[in-house]
Design goal:
The chain is of the alpha+beta class. The chain has three domains: about 1-135, Winged helix-like DNA-binding domain superfamily/Winged helix DNA-binding domain (Arc Repressor Mutant, subunit A, Orthogonal Bundle), CATH 1.10.10; about 135-220, Orthogonal Bundle (Arc Repressor Mutant, subunit A), CATH 1.10.10; about 225-314. The protein has 14 helices and ten strands. The protein has a three-stranded antiparallel beta sheet. Strands 8-10-9 form a three-stranded antiparallel beta sheet.
């Protein structure tokens, strides 16, 4: 099992109606991440429960006791989605096996799901496994997938009733206040802290009632392979500017540094310190995408870093 593995599934399956616990959802994503690009058919996909625990950062004893039971429930749990003119109803799994003493589980998707996972050429959603395994909230992974699907469009709008159905809470949280407090806000926080996208939402009223939610979606990284840009020079800039805890790509780091050099060069000031001061300011003030806010802060010196740095020199 590798956190860098890709989970690829059809958009139809992303939009499915199915009530699942956080553990059940993670089992499905891990299983999907084991599918090879060239697989012609499903097979028994095997993974280590210990590796699952390490990647998920969860309680070891609880998972060993629960993972087979969760897999067994997935053999009975019904998922409904549309495939063209067809309405498909099926279970997720056709078999589940664990071997005592070996700490492994072997699972197989139901054959009805082959078009939703194998040889996908269009209308699919993909993300790396590491973005979701540490998510704790039972609704967070579902919301992440629904918004990741629209990452390139950068926005998605739902009727409140629709998103409740998609998240499996249509029979609860009759008051929007409770839905927001216990579902939306915790999910938003987790997605923004732990995944590769940043999200926010706007509440749209019809009369006095909140009828729709309009989500904004921003990627945290560029699509290019980060390793291409993570040179020793970039690592040094990252550390000197105090950005080592941020998941900015190498290209983003260089863009920030180039702006900082342009703003500090004629004053003979340290561009790393200029970034650091504006970064500290951005952490306190940014309500949306941190990178976008920081880039703007550097361009306009929101933190008044130049004044601070000149005073430090004097």
């Amino acid at each position: 099992m590798d956190g860098d593995n890709w989970v690829v599934k059809s958009n139809a399956l992303v939009e499915c109606r199915a009530r699942m616990t956080a553990l059940e959802q993670k089992i499905i994503t891990v299983l999907a991440s084991e599918i090879n690009l060239n697989d012609e058919d499903f097979k028994d996909y095997e993974f280590s429960i210990k590796e699952f625990i390490n990647l998920a950062g969860t309680n070891e004893t609880a998972i060993y006791n629960q993972i087979h039971e969760s897999a067994a429930r997935l053999m009975q749990k019904i998922v409904t989605f549309r495939r063209g003119k067809e309405k498909i109803t099926t279970a997720f799994l056709s078999s589940a096996r664990t071997i005592d003493g070996e700490g492994k589980i072997m699972l197989r998707f139901d054959p009805s799901l082959k078009p939703e996972f194998l040889k996908l050429k269009e209308m699919f959603t993909q993300y790396q496994l590491k973005n979701v395994l540490s998510l704790k909230g039972s609704h967070t992974l579902r919301l992440y997938e629904l918004l990741k699907q629209y990452e390139k469009i950068k926005r998605r709008e739902f009727e409140v009733k629709e998103i409740k159905e998609l998240l499996g809470v249509d029979e609860g949280y009759s008051r929007f206040y409770d839905f927001e407090k216990y579902v939306l806000k915790p999910a938003k926080t987790e997605i923004n802290e732990k995944t590769d996208i940043w999200i926010d939402y706007e509440k749209i009223k019809e009369g006095r009632k909140i009828a729709k939610l309009k989500f904004e979606i921003e990627p945290k990284h560029f699509e290019e392979d980060e390793e291409v840009y993570e040179t020793e020079e970039i690592k040094l800039i990252r550390n000197k500017a105090g950005l080592q805890d941020e998941k900015f790509s190498g290209k983003q780091i260089m863009q920030l540094y180039e702006i900082a050099v342009e703003k500090t060069d004629r004053f003979n000031l340290d561009p790393h310190r200029y970034i650091e001061l504006n970064y500290i300011y951005a952490l306190k003030k940014a309500e949306k995408n941190l990178y976008t806010f920081l880039k703007g802060a550097l361009e306009k010196d929101y933190a008044k870093a130049k004044i601070t740095m000149i005073e430090e020199v004097e």
